[in-house]
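ok here's the first one, seq then struct tokens
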Amino acid sequence: MHQSSMAENCNKIQTVGEVNDVTSSEDEDEDDEDDEDEDLDEIKSDDENLASPFNEQNIVLVFDERKLFLQREHLIAVSPVFETMFSSKFPEGSMKEIPLPDKKHSHFVHFLRYLSPGFEDVLTEATVHHMLPLAEEYQTDDLKLRIEKFLIKGVLSQSDSITSVQIIVNIIEAEKYKLNGYLNACIDVASRKKKLTKNPKFEEISQSTQLKIGLKRIDEIDKIYSNASYRRSVKHNKFQMKDLGKHLKPYMQDN
């Protein structure tokens, strides 16, 4: 009887141990599953971020009879103006279609492509002057800086061939959008144009810029005469008018 009782107790202890082992194993499996779920959640989140450009569009910009289907979140990310527009404080916050009757569909497509990752569109003379007003209105400062660098490079590379009419148009553009670097480059080129003041559009330039153009011209010509006078004194009064004319030529352009 005593041996039978001991055997039963041993069997009970073994059974309890097996139950505990099973329970422990189940707990470990549950912990592993929780870890896997967390990993899957992270992967899912990363995938969603990567796939975000291909998500279903949830806002429509309307240009007369044409429409542009976009993601509200992307517009908010690239422009603080859109971020404000789509807030609850404005009617656009609850609208599915936003009319932009004063904008051109093609210009806005270029504008958004310049702002969006994954596109390698480069600025061109054909597009840059359409992009500048949009970059100003929607406060996309990085794009505006790219535009200014492009415009500076363009005006300096064409300084000899650019006409008085065109440089005046460029100056008005630089003043309107407060592009100081571009304006200074235009002033440098404008100071070399002999017929600049004869163009009626010259009066559309601010008086401050007109003064800077005049002073720049005087200063550069004065430097040329000063250098010529110095060389004349060094060479025992042998003054070469031919050399002086060569240096003055850039400031006597008829275009």
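and now the second one, same deal
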Amino acid sequence: MAANPNNPTIRADCQECKRHFLAIAAVVVCLAGCLLVLKVDKEIIVDDKQEPVVATKLAGLVLARGGSKGLPGKNLALVNNHTLLARAVTAMLHSNCFDEIWVSTEDKEIAEEALRAEANVHERPRSVAEDNTTSIEAVREFVDRHPDVKLVGLVQCTSPFIKAEWLRQACLMIATQGYDSVFSATRQKGLRWKPAENGTVKEVNFNARDRPRRQDWHGDLVENGMFYFVTTDLIKQNKLQGGRIGYVEIPHNYSLEVDTPLDLVLARALAPILDSSLYTPETTTVSE
């Protein structure tokens, strides 16, 4: 027998269901509103996952002056059909972690190449583009003229094998994990000696009476110059590292720096291999 819709008990049950439904709908609407309020405008992508980033302006910076003496024109040297400058800027763009990307230079040709690579050009005064100008001096000059920037990712374009994922890792560490500075390093397992008195030498990083086996030894971490992420507060203290310091470990064979003609020959020989997506090393990140 079909239920009588005019039955008072059935009508009361329907009214009660309706009230429950409206209460649930109100809760859903409130939760949706909260999510919209809490949404972070800026995101970076790390390992295909979105990680929230503190809303602090991060500028990517490449120092590329035109007066190199050891290898003239090295910033525009071609490696695998792209200039060193363009290779660096491309990795920075693919990292998706910079609010802005700048190339600091006093050279017209470098400025034109920077624009072709889709970077902004910071016109560097010649007073901070001399042979004896230090990197921190040039970075500080940039920061002084960009007071809205709070974090800087300094990338060295003469490191031809920069990968976007390494930049993303450094960006994540400084933006969301409480680091004040993060730099790239490679691990070396060389037994180091230093000159001592009377023309002798003394071991530095091992005990000569108990020489370590290579496979049993972690070795030393050595800066490879590829990148430095740092707060502008530290830069204003003339520091690229300080506070809580972290590092991204780069495989040794990716850590080549192009400073001499031979370095350029090696980079061109290695590029077809190291640029291949089939050769992707693991990256280890450790805090200090």
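notes on #2: The first strand starts at residue 43 and ends at 46. Residues 27-54 have pLDDT under 50 and may be disordered.
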